Amino acid sequence: MTASTLLQEIEKYIPIVGDINIKSPLAYQATRGAVEVVNTVQMAVAEAYINGLEVPDSVLESFFDTCMPIFFQYFPSLLAPYEWVLKETDHLAEGSQQLMKIQYDLPQAMLNTMLGDGKLIYPKYSMGLWEKGALNLEQSQMHMIDDVIEKLDIKDGDNILDFGCGWACVPNYILSKFPNVKFTGLNLSHAQCEYIRHKMQDPESYLSSHRFTLYEGDLNNANFETKFHKILSIGVFEHVGNLTRAFKKLASFLKDDGKVLIHIITVRIPNNMSSVYTHKYIFPHGRYWNYDAVPSHQEDLKTIKKWYLNGSNYSKTITNWLQNFDDNQATIKTLNYGMDYAKFRRIWRFYLIWFIRNFASCDGEYNGNGQFLMVHA
Fold first, then answer.
1. Residue 266 class from Cβ within 10 Å (0-12 exposed, 13-18 middle, 19+ buried)?
2. In 270-362, at which residue ranges do the beta strands (DSSP E only) sit?
3. What is the predicted pLDDT for the residue at 4?
4. What phi and psi, each to the nearest 5 degrees, are found at residue 145?
5. What are the backbone dihedrals phi and psi of residue 193, each rounded to the nearest 5 degrees, phi first?
6. Could you state, in chain order, the average pLDDT of each consecutive group of 10 residues for the chain (377 residues)?
7. Which residue spans within the chain are E strands per DSSP?
8. Looking at residue 9, what is its pLDDT?
9. pLDDT in the model for residue 93
10. Most buried pick, 19, 61, 72, 267, via CB within 10 A?
11. Rounded to whole angstroms, how far apart are CA atoms 361 and 315?
12. In 71-80, which positions are buried (b, 16+ CB within 10 angstroms) versus exposed (e)?
């Protein structure tokens, strides 16, 4: 028996430490009890802040900087607040309409201001790539999409599906690079689709070139007349509860020699991760899959290459979002959020500050982004 195997065997019987998925029944129940305590403390801190407790940003940052390295390195099981976070759920996606309402159907003016809304780079709610020398948020998003183009080996003439296309920033940018590429965007958010339809009527947008098709609906019900050379999905699988079924569906859309690139927030800890705070206020039923989760679901698609993108990239991206959010309060505070704006602002700032520190924690080596290049199994 090797030292690592021996350590794993010992950890089965010790609550909290290491991988919760391998615990003995008694250690598992003790760990779940500890998780409930962490959940309670987390929500007590968050709710106090949301309801008006004056806490300087520096104090919040110090709180996260102290807690997260300990959780990531020693007690990752405490980062799985619910049992459903640890494994696939029965449904492909849970609470998707609730997610749209809370996160993606917010006032467009607020999202444009925070995320950026340029002539080529539309709002993009995912990581920008900074490690190649980007000087600003827009350039970081261009570098990120260029990186995807290279890894997915996109060629002029490809017919591409973007699963969960957001505001169609990625298709618009890629269409600008390749005059013969065709794109289909699949999107569940009606508000985002309305934004895209407006761009499809704008002669300055590449979405108006008749090389872009929009499909409003979810993956379960989607069907297409032709198969695609390439499929990409950026920042969607955090909201997908069943990887096996999702990959089966995507494989059915893919040509025999086609390729799929999945880009997700991921964690390099033994188990998947979520939080009671983000589940309630930000990403209902969202989870951050363990870095090995995608390659372990090989029934219909298999991973042929994978990359880990250091969390510093996302930390810097969110830092820019927070700066944009704070710098434009005069406009943002006038919009309708369906609640008192002071409360919304605190909900949002708590989330952004937390994630800035999360992705920066441990030099970005535990919480970052994973990219997975897949083909037919």
1. buried
2. 289-290, 301-309
3. 74
4. -70, -40
5. -65, -35
6. 80 92 94 97 96 95 97 96 92 60 79 96 98 98 98 98 97 98 95 96 97 94 94 95 95 98 98 95 93 96 98 98 98 93 95 98 98 98
7. 159-163, 182-187, 212-216, 228-234, 254-267, 289-290, 301-309, 367-376
8. 85
9. 65
10. 267
11. 9
12. bbeebbbbbb
- What residue has token string 């895209």? 196
Show the tokens assigned to 82.
């619910």
Helices (H) and strands (E) in the chain, counts: 13, 8
Q: Which two tokens stand for residue 354?
A: 């937390």
CB 297 within 8 A of CB 247: yes
Calpha distance 269→18 (Å, rounded) = 9
DSSP notation for 34-48: HHHHHHHHHHHHHHH
Total Cβ atoms within 10 A of residue 155: 12
In angstroms, rounded to a whole number, what is the distance separating the alpha carbons of residues 332 and 328? 6
pTM for this predicted structure: 0.95
Amino acid letter, residue 81: P
Give the residue among 230, 233, 184, 189 at the shortest CA–CA distance from 210.
Answer: 184
Q: How far is CA 36 from CA 224, 237, 274, 283, 286, in A?
A: 44, 26, 13, 19, 18
Type of residue numbered 183: F
User: 72 vs 189, 213, 361, CA distance in Å?
Assistant: 33, 42, 9
Asked if 190 and 105 count as a contact pair (C-beta separation under 8 A), the reply is: yes
Read off φ and ψ for residue 185, nearest 5 degrees: -105, 125
Cα separation, 38 vs 36, in Å, equals 5
Would you state the structure tokens that stand for residue 300, as one six-digit string?
A: 């219909």
Q: Cα–Cα distance between 12 and 349 in angstroms, integer?
A: 38
**What per-residue confidence (pLDDT) applies to 7?**
77
